[in-house]
Amino acid sequence: MKLQKIVSHLQKLHPKEIDLSLDRIKILCEKLGNPQEKIKAISVVGTNGKQSTINAIFSILKEAKVKCNVYTSPHIQKINERFVFNNNMLSDDELIDLFEEVEKINDQNPLTFFEALSACYFYKAAQYPNNINLIEAGLFHRFDATNILKNNLASIVCSISKDHLDWLPKGQQTIEKIVFEKTSSLLNSNIIVSKQNSVETTESIKKSISKNLSNKLFFNEDYSYSNGENGFFYYEDKFGGLKLPLPNILGQFQLENISTAIATIRQLNLEIKDDDIKKGITKIENIGRLQEIKSGKIKDLIKNNKLLLDGSHNEDGARVLNEYLQTLDCNKHFIIGMMSNKNHEEYISHFKDISSLTTVDIPNQQNAISGKKLKEKFQNVFNARYEDNVEKAIKSLTLKENDMIIITGSLYLAGEILNLN
């Protein structure tokens, strides 16, 4: 409970949840000795695929016995997930000590919650100057608290699509504006651009970084993959080709993220062996993202039917989830809960062949849309039903042999399901 008490205090240091500025984080980090200038980092920006790409890099580097620190957001089940040092998540006691030390140095000055967490991460990361830091950018990146590095090893640009539009001015809620916010302030080092969902987005990225002096790699131009047979796929870049086993995570799009991870590692000449890559991609930990739940309290409710959990929450996430689901020959029952600031109608429009759709409330999230309101928004797309929680939603379904349940719409909902399960 002490950890939760400290977290609650950090959340109250600023009246706003988000206040786009770099001033406060820079002032605090200067008091901390500018720890962000003492680390080796790979920065990861984009809308979708950031954590999956980070998890793939992390898994490969662990296989190669390379020590990493990892900073991601949001967490799925507990806040400790955001703080990985020397390849291990901090314990509650370690996190309490870190938060208390930084909080004392901050001395009650205004600070958003994400700024506080980012400062804590940098402060701890500086204690491991030889480790590689994998840092996921938060909202947009240009004014994001992680964007105070003066140099890095590389910047990865994952798939960019429309999300968090409520933070952009009216009339500027465009993909071009989002690309600008995410890529215009990337550092001069190496930039690796993942597969994008349209040629227009790729061209917009190229325009945004045209004056950046970095070495630039683009998916399908400088590195690529192709599907193989008998459980293999093929990766290729200027260093040559690799015949690789299929990863332990689901979805064709994950091959895109894994390819970007491999391109980054090979570009940085980290002396990673091919065998480390082959083994690493079969050990990726990727909770809440196309994750099949195979046991637990929630799984017991549906016995032999499959249960898939996915935290996708925007149109691009819906699109790639649907692409995967279209490869499956079964009835698909959706249970969906979402945050209020999402484009709900656009999200649901990407799914085909829905056997049933049930909306639910997301507990413990004041910024979530109620399941009842979400049901109303979905009525033009599908005849949705509403239940106030996931257990009731599952029990209300009439399942046949081979039917699948997909719980999706929010990473926060995914976290609730995993904790409940």
How are the strands of the biggest sheet laid out side by side?
2-5-1-6-7-8
CATH class categorisation of the largest domain: Alpha Beta
Briefly note the structural class of the backbone: alpha/beta
Number of strands: 17
- Mean pLDDT, rounded to whole units? 94
Main features:
421 residues; alpha/beta; UDP-N-acetylmuramoyl-L-alanine:D-glutamate ligase; Protein-Tyrosine Phosphatase, Chain A; 6-stranded parallel sheet; globular
Describe the structure.
Strand 10 (232-237) and strand 11 form a beta hairpin. The protein is of the alpha/beta class and 421 residues long. Helices cover 35% and strands 17% of the residues. It has helices at residues 2-10, 23-31, 50-63, 92-106, 113-125, 175-183, 199-208, 253-267, 274-280, 297-300, 315-325, 344-349, 371-378, 390-395, 411-420, and strands at residues 40-45, 68-71, 84-85, 88-89, 132-136, 154-157, 190-193, 215-218, 223-227, 232-237, 240-245, 291-292, 306-309, 332-336, 354-359, 385-386, 404-408. The chain has two domains: 2-280, Mur-like, catalytic domain (UDP-N-acetylmuramoyl-L-alanine:D-glutamate ligase, 3-Layer(aba) Sandwich), CATH 3.40.1190.10; 291-420, Mur ligase, C-terminal domain (Protein-Tyrosine Phosphatase, Chain A), CATH 3.90.190. It is globular, with a radius of gyration of 21 Å. The chain is built from 15 helices and 17 strands. The strands form four sheets. A six-stranded parallel beta sheet has the order 2-5-1-6-7-8, with helices on both faces. Helix 4 (92-106) packs across helix 5.
